[in-house]
Amino acid sequence: MNVLVTGATGFVGHRLVPALLEAGHEVSVLVRDRSSYDPPADDVHVFEGDLLDQGSFESALADVDAAYYLVHSMGASGDFEERDRRAAKNFSTAASAADIDRLIYLGGLGPGDEADGVSAHLRSRQEVGRILGEGTYDLTTLRAAVIVGEGSASFELIDQLTHRLPVMIAPRWVRTRCQPIAVDDVIVYLVGVLDAAETAGESFEIGGPDVLTYQEMLRQTAEIAGRTVYIVPIPVLSPTLSSHWVTFVTDVPKSVAKPLIAGLKTPVIVRENRIEEFVDVEHTSFETAVRRAFGSDPEAAR
Predict the structure, then answer these.
(1) How much is the pLDDT for 298?
(2) pLDDT mean across residues, the chain
(3) Which residues of 49-69 are buried (b: 16+ CB within 10 A; e: fewer)?
(4) Under 8 Å CB-to-CB from 215, ≥6 apart: which residues?
(5) Are 148 and 182 in contact (CB under 8 A)?
């Protein structure tokens, strides 16, 4: 199958491309700067373009059977919600005009945006999914919470907090429940749905085998790294105040950290596992995923 990957330089995208090649697909990638991308194989077709600039990227969709949408704008300056909205509309229009068969989107796990207190980050992820769903292709959406792996902004926040704050006066969101998933498992799902025709036009929730509070994730990460962390939750730190605190003590860019922290008050748990009917995944525990992210798992693929 001829497949296009957008966001190929990102945390998930740069892992997905070699996995698709290994599965026997012909792969093209769309990047903003061709010089910044080193393809994993000579037969990867590299296109340069910007989804915010109509007319700059449409050629990448020629003769494509399926595409992956892994683009988001949190790290960019300005209104990331508006940028993501425009990019999704532009891509949906172009993909429909190119008459592709499938589009696969990796979105965010959580309640609908009509629920009280939904963060701007999650609201934007869901809006992008709705916009992409307006195209003439069959959209498959995979919705995940925290993805654990080297290069994940969410995991970097957890790691740096345990490293820099051995005693942590933390907000109440540390007791919010989350179902993290290893990036390796996400890749298996992303590749798997492409070959499962039954997943076309469907939305699925994906998660790992462990449901943990953020406090438990912080403590386990610290333990694996050989650190000790003491966490004292207090009620006075709101998500907004927490975001200022986190950006002060970590290197994660403010434009990324603030939207992520704002969403931590919302539980993100898998409510249905229909995806298991179509894609077989040997689930990776949170502990193993963290060890792989630290490079301390001898069986890790990386």
Answers:
(1) 41
(2) 86
(3) bebbeeebbbebbeebebbbb
(4) 170, 174, 175, 231, 233
(5) yes
